Queue: 3 jobs
Job 1
Amino acid sequence: MPRQFLYKPPIPQTEPWPPERSEPGLLSDEPARDVYRAACAHLGRALEPLGFKYLKSKQRCIARRSRFTNEVAFQSSHYNVSGRHVQLWMHATVASEELQAWRARCLPPELSSAHVAGGMVHLLGTRFAMVQWELADPQDREQTIQDAIQFIHSEVLPYFERFESVENLLAELATAAVPAFDLVPSVEFSCCFGGTAQAQATLDRFLRDRPDLQAAIAAESVSPSPAALSRPGGYAQQVVFLRHHYNLQ
């Protein structure tokens, strides 16, 4: 269980509770929504010195760099129970207006998004199966929020930093997969910022890593489904999509 998986089970009903609490076993009388929003605001303030702007209405922090936009977004659970569970999940994504404009020249308008890479923060590396923070207990809430801030510094910001060195990232994509950087956007990134040869190198690396897909790719190539040329699903369709739109082998 990763250090950041700070889940605390509810207090057993056999355990005494403070008399000032309105229900047995409650950790506090604070509404779950208020606890979550206050924690998001705290995280937002912590990121402001790093160039992020906190958007209170959306619970997300955005920083516009020279070529890329970095976003840290917060999410909670529909299953929160005030005084018992207040979950905090975190997403980190990289976007590029330059890549979006390049896609607009190559693809139908509905496919020209600015998304580059990212997702839930446990996907940014290979060490964690899942990461979440439990905010319900006011006694350790500050420590929990500080742990979330530390996680951003140790895991999220270094991930963002990888994209600032485009040449190094292009070279890396030709030799190894980058976490939370899916096949289609990674090849598009390579084509946009490096050219067709770089895109081919990224696709070739993927095909070397996945020889088990050869039969499915061959079958899809003979008779491409409409989805393969518009919104591909599985890897075989994605490879056909890339070859069709970007003249790759």
Note: Residues 32-162 form one domain.
Job 2
Amino acid sequence: MSKAPTYRAPSDCPVCGDELITTRLGCRNCGSELAGEFGHCDFCALDERETELLRVFLASRGNLREVEKHLGVSYPTARARFTELLMKLGLGSDANTVPTMTREQVLSEVATGALDPAEAAVLLANLD
């Protein structure tokens, strides 16, 4: 039996923006279905980049220097990305946990391609 392609389920309602819940599960093999309200998976809401960061972090046993090397970014960028991941998973305590970089460091990271413009915009907004 060939495996069907896997798609990421959306986590937010495209109509109102509220959190979606899982209400039906099915078996590809026998066609059985189970209906009900099932618990939310925090990790299922991560995008590919965030999942890769988490995999690299776990594979490196929590060593951010190894994450930095694997992703080809600076240590402050690796740390900032990991802090953003923690915040998304509800594990960050507050905005004070976001590491600070100088404006020059952020712009330098963008210039080398180690930091994308969207991340830079968030970091620069936190500097103000």
Note: Strands lie at 22-26, 33-38.
Job 3
Amino acid sequence: MNSRVTMALAAILLLGAIFVGYWGLVLSRQPAPVAQAPIAPAVSVENTAAIAEDQTRQPVVVLLHDVPPFTALTAADVTVEKLRSAPAGSLSNVDQAIGRTPWRSLSAGTWLNDESFSVGGTLARMIRSDERALTVAVDEVIGAAGQLLPGDYVDVLLYLRQDASNPQQSAQIVLPAMRVLGVGEQYGLTNDGQPATPALSTEDKLKQDQRRLAARTVVLAVPQQLLNRLMLATQAGTLRLAVRSSEEQRLAKYWAGEKQSSAHLDNANSQLFQFTQLAMGSGPKTPSSSGANAIARPAVEIIRGNQLSQQNP
């Protein structure tokens, strides 16, 4: 091979080396392609928490607006809201409420249960079948200085002055452990455990508390057997309400279904007209029989209203 051919091959190889070097330099300057990760849908922490919380809530049927009594509910009147804990006995489906007729006025936002469609006013739904709700007039002294609250238990005391119809002044407990249903316009719970009056704002509650302090009436739950006794006591003399201790747990026992024994009620009612016998001193004396050999006979009690006299046959 001559020198010319050798020089030509060397030139070609040199040019190829220059081209390869240049091309490698160009490729080294370009950024390497980065593999893109799949784009996941953006889910915030708040949305995740809201979804998890929604799954734990329970459906409750509530009213969308005020409903007057004796008006059948329609689909436009109710909706379903999810609460953290459903009230006991509440309806969970609108089909359970549509077509039913409430017997009293219901306000917007009220959750519905079977009691929403039961007959009876506020007081009628706060007592049992063997009780009666009776209103007693009070003042600042009689009503425990305005500190009575619905749910308290009180003893009803009677004071009788000495006068022509009452030989001796006396004081006694005519009705022990009566449950307070309401003070003025403030009432407690109904038999289903719900507030008898709708929830109030902070401002309205303050106004209600002020009216309660100045209330002139107290509503008591009186056993039917003692109803006449309380009525006579209100007309016979001066009443006082003595508040009993909450440590007795009487309200808890009431809600647990415990009732006063019939023997206790009969014992209290047995002294219905005998107010004059409960004075601090001795009551009316039986006239003595004359003669040393006279035979003692039992006296006969004669009752006229709240007056008691004894006569021998």
Note: The first helix runs from residue 3 to 29.
